[in-house]
Specification:
CO_DH_gsu; START-like_dom_sf; Carbon monoxide dehydrogenase subunit G; Alpha-D-Glucose-1,6-Bisphosphate, Chain A, domain 4; about 180 residues; 9 strands; alpha+beta
């Protein structure tokens, strides 16, 4: 039921300049697609109001963002939760020097919850892809960089059915190996 994706960016700023931008949650919020407003609650918590397009549905949502860890200047780990909508997610920001610039890797995940989760799950992957593309492009533009072409845009959606199917395949393979041995 969770979808994950990853983006890579190459920016023409040194890692400390990038960290100066990244370490301010207001900068992240304003680069989100559909950004309407945000509120800083504490050093680690904020609430973002976004207009999200879910294919047939479009609406404003409030997302509570909690930074789990700040690892200056190379990393951020964060969790998100819909304030009024049943979904959770999170992600990471990782950076490393690359010549005179910085290489950034962004990981995103989202998982629907509640009674509509099974109906919404097929939309999560494509929506997460679109949000990751737009956010990464906005961030790259702000930091004088670009999204790395050819970098794998990995999206993976895991459902219970998929987990059980893989488990059953492994059990069958194990049983076949026992019979053959």
């Amino acid at each position: 039921m969770a979808a994950t994706t990853q983006r890579e960016l190459a920016v023409n700023k040194d890692i400390d300049s990038v960290w100066n931008f990244v370490s301010d949650m207001s900068n992240w919020a304003s680069k989100m697609p559909g950004y309407q407003s945000h509120e800083i609650i504490s050093d680690d918590d904020s609430a973002w109001t976004l207009n999200v397009d879910l294919g047939p549905f479009q609406r404003s949502i409030v997302v509570d963002v909690h930074v789990v860890s700040w690892d200056s200047p190379t990393g951020v780990v964060f969790n998100i939760k819909g304030r009024y909508e049943p979904f959770t997610g999170g992600g990471t920001y990782r950076a490393e020097p690359a010549g005179t610039g910085t290489m950034i890797v962004l990981d995103f995940s989202a998982q629907p919850g509640g009674s509509m989760a099974t109906m919404i799950t097929p939309l999560v992957g494509p929506v997460l892809e679109r949000i990751a593309d737009q956010f990464s492009s906005n961030l790259a533009q702000e930091l004088d960089g670009k999204v790395v072409e050819g970098a794998p845009a990995k999206t993976k959606t895991t459902t219970r059915r998929g987990l059980f199917k893989r488990l059953a395949q492994k059990i069958r393979a194990w049983l076949r190996s026992l019979r053959a041995g």
